[in-house]
Amino acid sequence: MKVSRFIFNMFGINTYIMWDPATLEAAIIDPGMIDIDEEQALYDFISRNSLRPVHLINTHMHLDHIFGNLKVKEKYGLDIKAHPDDDFLGKSLSESVRRFNLRIPVSDHGVDIALKDGETLYLGKEPVEVISVPGHSPGSIALYCPESGFVITGDALFRGSIGRTDLPGGNHATLIRSVTDRLLTLPDSTTVLPGHGPETTVGEEKRSNPYL
Predict the structure, then answer these.
(1) What pTM does this model have?
(2) CA 111, CA 93: separation in Å to the nearest integer?
(3) Confidence class of residue 194 from pLDDT cuts 50, 70 and 90?
């Protein structure tokens, strides 16, 4: 599996495209584009590499991770896949934008296809495992690719940090439990691709993350 990162919008969110080099099937993870330039950067990469998007996935549905959902959905004919416990966040997107005093045109939208803990998606023949990691939001998930040795953690786990829990539906104790029981139990060599900031490894976070 190959993966590429884009940094979008004023929150510096990591949008990922991962794809199977044999079939060129691709997944777009957390599209955070807010303007034409950011949208075009994503589209051009997909076109340049002859990728065929088959999944649109949100690790969670906080505003910065879903700004580009509807653009991607329309362009590639994809359903929005996310955990149903975050549906309320997508459906209150415009309220969240007002709360952050942003002037970005958005449309409220929910989850089209519900993803659940333990579910497996595929890009080509390679599995992508859905791991429930609530706490940052009720429906936060991680996407684990065991054959390629990486996990996309959304805002549950960062390099040297964890996600905030003061937004609607957040719970600190739940997040600590999720990270400890669901992510730090992965092999130490697993590369962690977070929702913001640089990559790390499970082993490094076990050794040095001050929040854990």
Answers:
(1) 0.97
(2) 12
(3) very high
Q: Is the dihedral of CA 21, 132, 195, 202 positive or negative?
A: negative
The CB density around residue 194, as the number of other CB atoms within 10 Å, is 24
Q: Give the integer Cα–Cα distance in Å for 136 and 153.
A: 11
CB 138 within 8 A of CB 86: yes
Taking the alpha carbons of 3, 79, 130, 35 in that order, is the dihedral positive or negative?
A: positive
2: DSSP letter: E
How would you list the strands of the sheet with 191-194, edge to edge? 120-123, 126-132, 141-145, 150-154, 191-194, 200-201
C-beta separation of 55 from 81 below 8 A: yes
For the chain, percent of residues with pLDDT exceeding 70: 100
Q: How many CB atoms lie within 10 A of CB 70?
A: 17
Mean pLDDT of 63-87: 98
